[in-house]
Amino acid sequence: MNTQIRRTIALGAMLTATVGLAACGGSDSTSSATPTAASTTAPANLSVEQANLVGPGCSAYVTQVPTGKGSVEGMANDPVVTAASHNPMLKTLTQALTGKLNAKVNLRDTLNGKDYTVFAPVDTAFAQLDTKTMDNLRKNPQALLKVLTYHVVAEELDPSEVVGRQVSVQGQDLDVTGKGNTIKVNGANVICGGVKTANATVYLIDKVLQP
């Protein structure tokens, strides 16, 4: 994907957040999202190996959420923000993406609408942020938008493709290193990666990335 397209996507995300699209504002509806062909129903009781997942926390995730919309197979049926909202480890991220952390930043429709790779900080990652940083994200929409879009790449990358230097929607590079169960992004550990949603590939990570 060329630089101009990336800039266009980043600008589109900024406009979505800044003007607070009426279609997004505070609603949990995802009717405007158009799932891709990847939104086929995944087989029940999908194992870590069957799902092509990587990361030391995948087995624990599958055990914690074995069935339902927040499970590996359940997330495959919804676009990414909707899928994340059902995952019990991604409550804070979901709030940040849907206007509940800062009312002026709502990326639900933007991220539900195209193909992405999302490095998704789990709740314990947000809990590591100091009070000053969290207060700034709540009060400063541009700061929150910058952080959120830094966790997104404007194409789907599975575990065999993700390692290397990737350009975030925010515009700065992400350095993805390692292999198998030891993949890192900017030094943050991938807890469980390669989780498919209807339009994205998700990597649960243990830190909030700072551009």
TrEMBL record:
Upper classification of the organism: Bacteria, Bacillati, Actinomycetota, Actinomycetes, Kineosporiales
The protein's name: Cell surface glycolipoprotein Mpt83
Ranges where the FAS1 domain occurs: 77-209
Domain of life: Bacteria
Coiled coil: none
Gene name as annotated: mpt83_2
Alphabetical UniProt keywords: Signal
Signal peptide: 1-22
SMART domains registered for this protein in UniProt: FAS1
